[in-house]
Every structure is written in structure tokens, then in C-alpha cells.
Design brief:
mainly alpha; two-stranded antiparallel ribbon; 2 helices; rod-shaped
């Protein structure tokens, strides 16, 4: 037998199976396994969005570094290499 999962009228308690403790006019919550799957799927989507955001940002940064290199050349070559190394470190950190 499946236990009711109702939203408790006091949010600090989360869910309840007792109707008198539940919020009025709120539908029953999804079962625990479904909630776990939905949460897992949402985390995967968020991780994918973060990866895409990082890759788009990194691409723009590298394009701008190339532009700076073209205009300022050897005057800033050392600094640009340092920035590229930092971007590589960020890449490794975000990949883990």
C-alpha cells in the first residue's frame, strides 16, 4: 500500500501522510522514487547547461585573446599565455 505524500502546512516538516496536517487544496506529491528521478534528471540538465555555458564563455574569451594578440603581439604575449593557462585550469576544474 502506497503512503500519501501531502505537503505539510508547515514547510519545515516537508511532507505528511496525515490529511489534517496537510495544506488545503494541494494535490498529492509524486511518490519518493519519482521525486528522486525528477531531481536526478534536473541535476543532469543543470550540469549540461553549466558545461554549455562554460564552453561558450571559454570560446568567447579565447577569441578575444586572439584579437588582443593580433593587436598587441609580443607586448602582451607572456600575459596572454598566463591567461590561457588559467582557462585550462578552469576547464580541468569544471571537468572534475
Amino acid at each position: 500500500m502506497e503512503i500519501l505524500r501531502l505537503l505539510h502546512r508547515h514547510s519545515e516538516h516537508g511532507y505528511t501522510s496525515r490529511t489534517h496536517e496537510a495544506m488545503n487544496d494541494e494535490p498529492e506529491a509524486v511518490d519518493h522514487d519519482t521525486q528522486r528521478r525528477l531531481t536526478h534528471d534536473a541535476r543532469l540538465r543543470q550540469a549540461q547547461r553549466r558545461r554549455e555555458l562554460w564552453h561558450d564563455s571559454r570560446d568567447r574569451l579565447l577569441e578575444n585573446l586572439d584579437l588582443v594578440q593580433q593587436h598587441f603581439g609580443s607586448d602582451v604575449a607572456h600575459e596572454l599565455r598566463a591567461i590561457r593557462r588559467e582557462l585550462d585550469r578552469i576547464e580541468r576544474r569544471l571537468a572534475s
